Amino acid sequence: MKYLEPTASSSPVCRSSSSARRQRPKFGNTIKQIAANEDQTCHGKNREAVSLRPFWRATFSVNDEPENLLTLPPLDESIADKIIIFKVQRPRLLDTPAWGKVRSVNMGNLVAEIPYFLDFLRRFEIPAELQEDRCGITYFQHPDIKVALKAMSQEERLLELIDESFWPEDATAGAGDFKGNASKVEQQLLHGSVRESASKLLYFSGSAGTYLARLAEREDGRVTYKTGRGGQREYIITHPTHPGTPGNRTTISPESLERVNQRNI
């Protein structure tokens, strides 16, 4: 009785890992639709759609392998306050010999407790510090999952490729910061030593600008920008081993970086 994306055929978990990554923003939009919209368009099979206000919650379970975690939507500002992510582990009790010998008895005891657990949930009152006007309860994402997602995000991968291409360990060019627009960054990556990996990452138009903009929103200062004439952004990407204020250091021009890449091809 629902008319919401993703359907079974388009869900990220039903596709290959690379395709699933491309579905992440769409999956995030679906979560926002479920969490934020009171009125939902629903229909039975081969029936006319009707507008309803269902009481529902969406759940999504994945393993902690990287390819599975990357089916989760990007945790940007538009969705972070609408999703709760827990880290769940298998209880050690289930792996003990004692549990296996009396498994049926233990399962019976667990099932017998379910009505009491449901009664507890019905009576439970959300603490004031956890209440939130829009969704009822404030959001939470387990720190371990957040760190894992950050490490595997597209923008993080872009920064890894930039570091590898712009500042190779055996390079003899200067070790200053890079300064240039998103197009220059993209061209250097696609024609440099990491061109194969970059072509897989930068598969849609404007992808470099999108990822650089996300990196510029971070507080670590690795990527900043200045807005020039016509609103075009000039990005300053700091050297990975030289923390500090970007304006206090030398910069690598796109032309000098191209010479470094030519030596590495």
Describe the protein.
This protein is α/β, with parallel strands linked by helices. The chain has a domain at 154-264: Arc Repressor Mutant, subunit A, CATH 1.10.10. It is 43% helix and 11% strand. The chain is built from eleven helices and ten strands. The chain has helices at residues 17-36, 66-69, 77-80, 97-101, 103-123, 143-152, 154-166, 182-190, 195-201, 207-216, 254-264, and strands at residues 40-42, 50-52, 84-85, 131-132, 136-137, 140-141, 177-180, 223-227, 233-237, 251-252. Strands 8-9-7-10 form a four-stranded mixed β-sheet. A two-stranded antiparallel sheet has the order 1-2. The protein has a two-stranded parallel ribbon with strand order 3-6. A hairpin with a 3-residue loop joins strand 4 (131-132) and strand 5 (136-137). It is extended, with a radius of gyration of 24 Å.
Fold topology:
Blueprint: H1 17-36, E1 40-42, E2 50-52, H2 66-69, H3 77-80, E3 84-85, H4 97-101, H5 103-123, E4 131-132, E5 136-137, E6 140-141, H6 143-152, H7 154-166, E7 177-180, H8 182-190, H9 195-201, H10 207-216, E8 223-227, E9 233-237, E10 251-252, H11 254-264
Parallel strand pairs: 3-6, 7-10
Antiparallel strand pairs: 1-2, 4-5, 7-9, 8-9
